[in-house]
Amino acid sequence: MTTRVAVAAPNGHATGAALRVVAEGGGAVDAAVAAMLVTMVTEPGIVSLAGGAFTTVWPAGEPAAVTVDGYVAMPGLGGRREPAVHDVVTDYGAGVTMTAGLGSVAVPGAVAGLALVQERWGHLPWREVVGPATEVARTGFTLGAASGYYLPYVRDSLFGWDPQTRAALEGPDGRWLETGDLVVVTDLADTLAMLAAVGPDAFYTGDVAAIMAEDMADRGGLVSAEDLAAYRPVVRPALDVDVGAWRLRTNPPPAIGGAVLAAMLTLLGDRPRGEWTRDDVAHLVEVQRQVLEVRRERIDLADDRGAAAWELLRGVGHAGATSPSTAHVSVVDSDGGACAVTSSYGYGSGATVPGTGLWLNNCLGERELNRGAQPPPGTHLASNMAPTVGRRADGAALAIGSPGADRITTALLQVLASYANGGTTLQAAVDRPRLHVHHVEGGGVRVDAEEDLPLPVLELEVRRHHPHSMYFGGVAATGVTPDGGLQAAGDPRRAGAVAIG
Fold first, then answer.
1. Residue 63 contacts by C-beta under 8 Å, 6 or more apart in sequence?
2. What is the pTM of this model?
3. Contact call for residues 272 and 287 (beta carbons, < 8 A)
4. C-alpha 212 chain-centroid distance
5. How far, in Å, CA of 75 to CA of 92, rounded?
6. Sign, CA torsion 257/351/216/49
7. CA separation for the pair 357, 196 (Å, rounded)
8. C-alpha closest to that of 199 among 291, 270, 128, 286
């Protein structure tokens, strides 16, 4: 019997790639990897092959889920250099200051991580899951809503200083491309064709690695040939947390996002018990305030962030083991397998590796994630990402995740609580208005909330956003019902695409 899948991804190119590889004999993992590779091509400025990714997989019939940490790593194994960096100040997200340039680039890990996921749990050869991304890179794609929203804030300041990056975002008449315009990133299709033929070694010890290391040395980057050759993804048991009848598995420490999500879900308890009441919302605000304060004041500044994250979980009685530039793909299959992949490349460094079409990350320049001591070279960096899968005793399964910087965990918290405790549908849980507790400089606390969310009386500053604001993430969720039915929910905040086939 042919496997069927439900897919939620950032755009139709990605969902189409997922259905294609399933038709060729793939399952949830093949579909998720293919969809994420296509996403890395078709969401310029949002995510890139030269970033990082976390994948949480719960294979059909297996008793445990795992998370593959393919996130970026700290460079420096090839010696120290003076980094070439510059600051960029943007009005995006009510004001963000970031560090860009070649010196802000961390060692990319996404390709290695996805290749490992495909090798261990996929059904198809690597070249077949890379194929759709190669094709869309060669033919081009229309600029989507998320990129079209973000890029105007940073086109000149962040993506205009490198001639190759700028050329990809300019039309033949020299104007900046807008939503709906055709984008063709020069050389990217050839790079993907090499990746399909050679495998991930092309990125870490082969031709692409050599070009990247040379460019880094020439233009003030910190990533060396030694950093690339030494990079390894890490496989860990997924972090477990129970919500209602659901056994959820998410990204474990030393990543931060999964631990924060698990702590908030635990403190929220069994709320809401149906529709959200004002009392439930008040409790939600307090849960976010407490956990995010611990994160800001203790975890982010700790020398060992992983240990600090575990301490947070112990403190709430857990019993188990900010940036727009994030994208998520969720896939479940009719066999009960679930795969959730979240990828980020920070806000982007603005740099393109010459002759490859690869846009480089600025993960060293995400100030909100790099407030503590600098980790040793080779260490995987801290992340908010929390790709999550789940099962229920009646055979239901779930894959869910979101982009959205520090709003990733609060978005997932509200969707999972609504779905698991509130008895709503998956799509209704995603559509529901959201809030996020924001700790501002100087110790203040502000509640950001969509204007259609009724709030209780709060002794806190409140800032309202329009309904379905991109500020509150872009949850992508898929599920299998107890009778084997498939469902997929896309977030209107990022015009996500869904498909079942």
1. none
2. 0.94
3. no
4. 23
5. 28
6. positive
7. 15
8. 128
Q: Which residues pair with 189 in a beta bridge?
A: none
Residue in this structure with the two tokens 């990605």, named with its chain if needed: 14
- Report whether 54 contacts 68 (CB < 8 A): yes
The residue type of 217 is A
Tell me if residue 340 falls in helix, strand or coil: strand
Q: Count CB neighbours of 87 within 10 A.
A: 13
Beta-bridge partner residues of 69: 54, 234
Q: What is the 3-state secondary structure (H, E, C) of 342-359?
A: EEEECECCCCEECCCCEE
DSSP 170: B
Return the bridge partners of 347, or none.
Answer: 345
Burial status of residue 345 (CB atoms within 10 A of its CB: 0-12, 13-18, 19 or more): buried
Amino acid at 316: V
Residue 153: count of CB within 10 angstroms of its CB: 18
Express each pLDDT in 201-255 by its tens digit.
Answer: 999 999 999 999 999 999 999 999 999 999 999 999 999 999 999 999 999 988 8
Question: 4's torsion region: left (phi>0), alpha (psi -120 to 50) or beta?
Answer: beta
Tell me the residue ranges of DSSP E strands in 196-272: 234-237, 239-243, 246-250
Q: What is the pLDDT of residue 317?
A: 55
Closest Cα partner for 280 from 409, 408, 426, 435?
A: 435
- What values do phi and psi take at 242, rounded to 5? -100, 135
Q: What is the spatial distance between Cα 423 and Cα 235, in angstroms, rounded to a whole number? A: 33
β-partners of residue 344 are 52, 326
Neighbours of 450 (CB within 10 A): 19
pLDDT for residue 94: 62
Dist CA 496 CA 417 (whole Å): 21
Secondary structure of 94-121 in HEC code, one letter for each residue:
HCEEEEECHHHCCECCHHHHHHHHHHHH
Residue range 179-200: mean pLDDT, rounded: 96
Extract the tokens encoding 453.
Answer: 């969310």
Closest by CA position to 51, among listed 434, 248, 245, 324 = 324
Identify which of 256, 209, 260, 258 has the alpha carbon closest to the alpha carbon of residue 380. Answer: 256
Q: Output the six-digit token pair for 6.
A: 């439900």
- Yes or no: say if 355 and 370 are a contact pair by the CB < 8 Å rule: no
Among residues 235, 268, 245, 284, which one has the least CA distance to residue 398?
245
CA distance 24 to 492: 30
Q: Distances from the Cα of 8 to the Cαs of 77, 328, 350, 490, in angstroms?
A: 38, 8, 28, 6
CA gap 391, 62 in Å, rounded: 11
Contact 42, 141 (CB under 8 A): yes
Residue 98: band (very low, low, confident or very high) from pLDDT cuts 50, 70, 90? confident
- Sort residue 311 into left (φ over 0), alpha (ψ -120 to 50) or beta: alpha
- Cβ-based neighbour number of residue 482 at 10 Å: 11
Burial of 123 (0-12, 13-18, 19+ CB in 10 A): middle
